[in-house]
Amino acid sequence: MNLVKQNRNAFPVMDELFRDFLGGTQYVSKMIPPVNVNETEAEYTIQLQVPGFKKEDFKLEIEKDVLTISANVAEQEEITGKFTRREFRSVSFKRSFTLPETVNEEGIRAGYEAGILSITLPKKEEQQKEKRFIEIA
After folding, report:
1. Domain that holds residue 46
2. Alpha carbon distances (Å) from 59 to 16, 62, 73, 92, 96
3. How many separate domains does the chain show?
4. Model confidence over 42-96: pLDDT tens digits?
5. For the purposes of burial, counting CB atoms within 10 Å of the CB of 53, is it exposed (0-12), middle (13-18) or buried (19 or more)?
6. 35 CB neighbour count, 10 Å cutoff
7. Using an 8 Å Cβ cutoff, are 20 and 13 in contact?
8. 81, 51 in Cβ contact below 8 A?
9. CA–CA distance from 25 to each of 14, 40, 53 (Å)?
10. Coil, helix or strand for 102?
11. pTM for the full model?
């Protein structure tokens, strides 16, 4: 029994180079946009790096204290001509965040600029009280 996989091609590096150059190799990956979450005294801010989208592509919904951010962009069908390589695919993602009890859900707002989706989650008024120091007698 042979446990070692044999490469029958005498020049495996050249084979990989030409396969990649001619479009034979395909990489399938699910997009998971990177995220930053920032907290200040007054609010939380969630930022997702999602270039190439339009603001209409995004769907934000809250259900049972879970914020779900999703997008789905279909592949362009109008492109004509013969391709030697085609890597544009439909892109979709879905990210969910459990909201803390301190978030005022009615005041949530979102914006999209320069490839960054920003979602601002204001804290409830009672959570924004300033620090108070207690003097020890």
Report:
1. 28-128
2. 40, 10, 12, 11, 12
3. 1
4. 999 999 999 888 899 999 999 998 999 999 877 656 667 777 777 766 788 999 9
5. middle
6. 15
7. no
8. no
9. 13, 46, 26
10. coil
11. 0.66
